[in-house]
Structures are given as C-alpha cells and as structure tokens.
Specification:
Layout (H helix, E strand, L loop, with lengths): L2 E4 L9 H5 L4 E3 L5 E3 L15 H10 L5 E4 L11
Antiparallel strand pairs: 1-4, 2-3
Bound molecules: iron/sulfur cluster (SF4).
The site of iron/sulfur cluster (SF4) has 14 residues, from helix 1.
Length: 80
C-alpha cells in the first residue's frame, strides 16, 4: 500500500496535484493541498486504483511537498 501526506509548509498552492490526482487531493481555504482521504495525516492507505495518479502527482509537484511511503506516517501532518 501507499501512504501520503502534503507538507503544507512547502506547498505553493500551484494546483498541479489536484489536476493529476483529483480523487486524492483537495485544497484548503488558502489553496494549499491536503490529502482528502485521511485528513492529510498520512495514515490511511491510498486505494490501489489511485496509486498511479498518486505517483504522477508526486512526480509533478514542483516543491516535492507530496510525501509518499509504503508504510503509514506517524501522523506527521496533523500538527498543522
Ligand atoms: Fe502544493 Fe505540490 Fe500540490 Fe502544487 S503540486 S499544490 S506545490 S502539493
């Protein structure tokens, strides 16, 4: 499985990830990206049928703010 969260400290609200993976990313009121699936905690497994678009978004992020791993993150993004 894949797990993902957005580092909102480095996200520049460019909108690219939502184009690549509209089923994974949404935007807050400042236009910063966050993972819709698990409230951007990096603890919820991305559905397998969304993994390809996830990797497209990860590659396409100009600031490397999309953090992807094979195991759950320890709630890294929840301290926003
Ligand atoms: Fe933020 Fe990267 Fe998504 Fe652009 S592609 S909105 S910088 S996370």
């Amino acid at each position: 499985s894949k797990f993902v969260f957005v580092d909102k400290d480095t996200c520049i609200a460019c909108g690219a990830c939502g184009e690549d993976a509209p089923n994974i990313f949404e935007y807050d009121e400042e236009g910063l990206s966050e993972v819709a699936l698990d409230n951007n905690t990096g603890t919820g497994a991305v559905p397998e049928d969304l993994e390809e678009e996830l990797l497209d978004a990860e590659e396409g992020c100009p600031t490397e703010s999309i953090k992807v791993a094979d195991t759950p993150f320890q709630n890294k993004a929840a301290n926003e």
